[in-house]
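Problem: given the chain below (174 residues), write out its structure.
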Amino acid sequence: MEKLKQTHVLTITAMLIAIATVLGFFKVPLNPLVELRFAFLPIASAGMLFGPGVGAIVGALADVLGYLAKPTGPFFPGFTISGAVSGLLYGLCLYKKPLTVPRVIFAQFVQVIVISLILNNINLSILYGNGFFAVMVPRLLKTFIMFPINTALLFVMLKAMQQIAKQFLPQEQA
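Solution.
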């Protein structure tokens, strides 16, 4: 990764990994089925700022560090892969592209389909020995409820990150 040889990129990437790790410990339950989680925000920010490769690194390392800091069950590498693919997808959708509401909706939609509905359900069915659809059906409602909430959070966060990047990063990065 050529970008990670730049001190400012490495520093910001390390901070985003730390933020994603800490945010992974927190959730705000809205009801028994729906809860706000925030760890995806720094992962998406890394993808938007530095591209799919750095986004993937942030996603993977945040998962591993979160497990090491506060294990909540068995370690399963499938979730690390999900974290990496999530950062990769955000980078592919957002890196060096205008930040618009339709683009953020698309990025979140791709992430929900690929990660939430496919990869994470495969991971859960393998980990707990349940059938894929037995795991997916209860999670569908949660996914559809959380989509607009997470998309709005993502847009607001990325707009703020974009403004910060314009002030503090070299122009080719912002």
